[in-house]
Amino acid sequence: MSKTLMATAPNTETDFLPLEGTDYVEFYVGNAKQAAHFYKTAFGFQSIAYSGPETGVKDRASYVIRQNKLTFVLTTPLRAGNPMADHIYKHGDGVKVLALRVQDATKAWEETTKRGGKSYMEPTRLKDDSGEVVLSGIHTYGETVHLFVERKNYTGAFMPGFKEWKTVYNPTDTGLQYVDHCVGNVGWGQMNKWVSFYEEVLGFRNILSFDDNDISTEYSALMSKVMSNGNGFVKFPINEPAEGRKKSQIEEYLEFYDGEGCQHVALATNNIVETVTTLRDRGVEFLKVPSSYYDELLGRVGHIDEDLEPLKELGILVDRDDEGYLLQIFTRPVEDRPTLFFEIIQRKGAKSFGKGNFKALFEAIEREQELRGNL
Length: 375
Ligand code: FE2
Fold this sequence. Notes:
alpha+beta, nine-stranded mixed sheet
């Protein structure tokens, strides 16, 4: 057992990369029009902005959707034979950009590239009648990138190049609030390289570590380290497969994504029972743990405010740490490849990630891996 929890008090004086949170998550997908419809219908996002041939962008179409502080961009290439089309051919649908809000995107780029970050986009000033947005970016694991977004006075729908997307189809929201954390899966022996990357290039700290003794089942294992920025608004756990008797879920991901990439995005809610009930009714599929999980639950986590019955019915998991408890549930992969999925999480004081659920959860994933013939 090697769990370590360290202080995460913000230190703005020395933070060379002050982050205000996640600005948006951009997915490269095979059909952005249909993907936007799925996230609106199933997850309750609203139409915000569009960019494509009609707005003068000739090589792609992008749909921006939002729910509270959560913004997704769904982008698809319009032709073959370009890096975006190659990305989708290789990886399938997946996360391309984890965009971080900053006060100064030029400084963010300078500070990170001088510390060894590989530039993806030099500081770029975008302007239209609604104001100005500055973007810059660096590469992270696999083909994933971080963009730094400075949007001080911008009053338009999303950013220059996009027009407001108005539609009569506006499904109600599902109570999702913001990005809690985004997890990356990296290859064998690569975790510490990426831990150092987040420490040295972005000034993050390793706030929690799990080794294969913490995260192993009868068959498979993984290791994980949670990286956090100074104010704790941005958290990136990093997973690496570990040796087990059978193929771990991380290896399955790496095989089907054909490389390293974002494994899951955790979406926060203030009422997980209501949110998950709505998501389920709208067709979102969740992983199920055996009902025996609930027999020992209250003995393990103590008193919780929620009734046990709806948690059991929906398959919501609970874990407690020194500061409180959390409720969480994981979707099945949202594409046919067993790659990207979502976590729905409600924190009631707890700042951890549900270690007490790892075993039950990974056994549930392994049952699905076995059905796919990938265990
Ligand atoms: Fe998570």
